[in-house]
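re: ur question from earlier - yeah i can do the single chain one, its not a big deal. heres the input i used so u can compare w yours
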Amino acid sequence: MAPLEEADVAVFGGGVAGTMAAVAAGRSGARVVLIERYGFFGGNATAGAVAQFNSWQTANGRRVVAGLAQEVVDRLRALGGAGEHEVFTMSTGHRMDRVAYSPEVLKLVLDEMVLQAGVRPMLHCTLLEVRREGRRILDLALLTRGGRRRLHPKVLIDASGDVEALHQAGAQFLELEPGEALQPATMMFRFGPIDFDVLGAVDRASLEGLAAKGYASGALARKALHHARDPQSDDAWFNIGRLPIDATDPHALSLAEIEGRRQAWQAARFLAQEVPGCAAGRLRAFGTQVGVRETRRALGDHVLSATDLVGCRPFEDVVAAGAYPIDIHPASGGGLDYRALGPDDAYQIPLRSLTPLGLDNALVVGRGISATHEALAAIRVMTISMAVGHAAGLAASLAAAGGGSIRAVGLHLLQGQLRSGGAVLG
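and the output i got, formated as C-alpha cells:
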C-alpha cells in the first residue's frame, strides 16, 4: 500500500497559475502540496520560456491585474530579472503592454514564494490516478522518485494546463465548435547577441515586410518577428513558431517538440541573414518544451464567452479581471485573428468558471478554465492566469476550512481577501 499523505489543498501543476494558487492558499494557513512534473516551477513561463507577462492594463492605461502577479514582477526586479512595464507595437502591427523577464530568474522567485508560504513542493512527480466518489475528489495516486504515494486533499486545484487530474476524475469538458481548431503550440528560442538600437530603428512597415518575406520563403512558420529582450543580456526570446497539434496526443506532442526545434533553427538563420541588428546573433537555447496554448477546457458552472468579454459583462462572483484582446492563432496560415477591446474595456472572470460541473471540492485554473475557444484566446495569457490562480488559492483555503465545498465559500469574504491582497476585480 502506498503511503498516504493529507493536505488541505493539493495543487496539481506548478505553472504560474498553480504556483500563485499554492502560495495564496499557503499564506492563508492551509496545508498545501504543490505537485509538478519538472524540477522547477513556472510551466510555460519557465519551461516554455515565454519570457514576457502581457496585458496588465486596458488600452488607455487603467490597471486590471496586480496582487500576486505584481509581487512576482517586484521580486524579479529585485534580482535584476525583469524589465520595466512598456507599451509597444508588435511586428504584426498590434499594440500591447508587457513586462519582459528572465525565465531562469523566475525559477528562483517562484521557489522563494513557495517555500516562504509554507507550501510542500513535490517536484519530479507524475499523476497516476485520481479517485472520485460522487461529487468529491477522494485522493490522488502519485509516482515520485521515492515510489508511489497517495495524497488525500480536502480540495484539489487542477492547474496542469491539460486538466489531466479532472480528466482522470471523469469531469466534463467543452468541445470545439464547427469551424474551430485548437490553437497551435510554439517552440520559443533564445537568439543573440542583438544590436537593439539597430533593430529598434527599423520601422513597422519594414518589419512586417521582413516577416512576410520569411514566411513566403518558408524560413518562418508565421508572419511575425515577435520577441522579448532578456533583461540580463543582449539576447531575446523569439515567439515565431507554429505547431498545429493536439498536445494531449503523446505522439503528436513528441513530433511537435522535434519540429519546433527545426523551426527555431531555421528562423534563427533567417534572423542572422536578413534582419537588421541580428547579423552577429545565433541560436542560444530552445525552450525546455513547446509552449501550448490550448487543449482541454473544463465545463464549469459558467462558460465564459467572447460576448461576456467584449460586452464587459459584470459578475457577482467576480474573482479576477483582464483586458487582453481575443488573440486566436490559427492552426494554419501565417496571420492572427486579433480582436482588440475598447480603450477602457476590461472584463471579469467569475468563480463559476473555475468550478467544474458535478464536483464540489475541485477548481480549475490556467488555460483549462470553463471558457469558449474564443474567450480562452483572451484569458489564457499568464498575467491573467496568475490573477485567477491567486483567487483559486484563497477560495480553496476557505473551502478546506469550512468542509471542502467550493460553492459554500462566502463570496464577499473571498472578494475582500483578494482586494486586501492587492487584486483588481474589474
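The chain has eleven helices and 18 strands. not sure if urs matches, ping me
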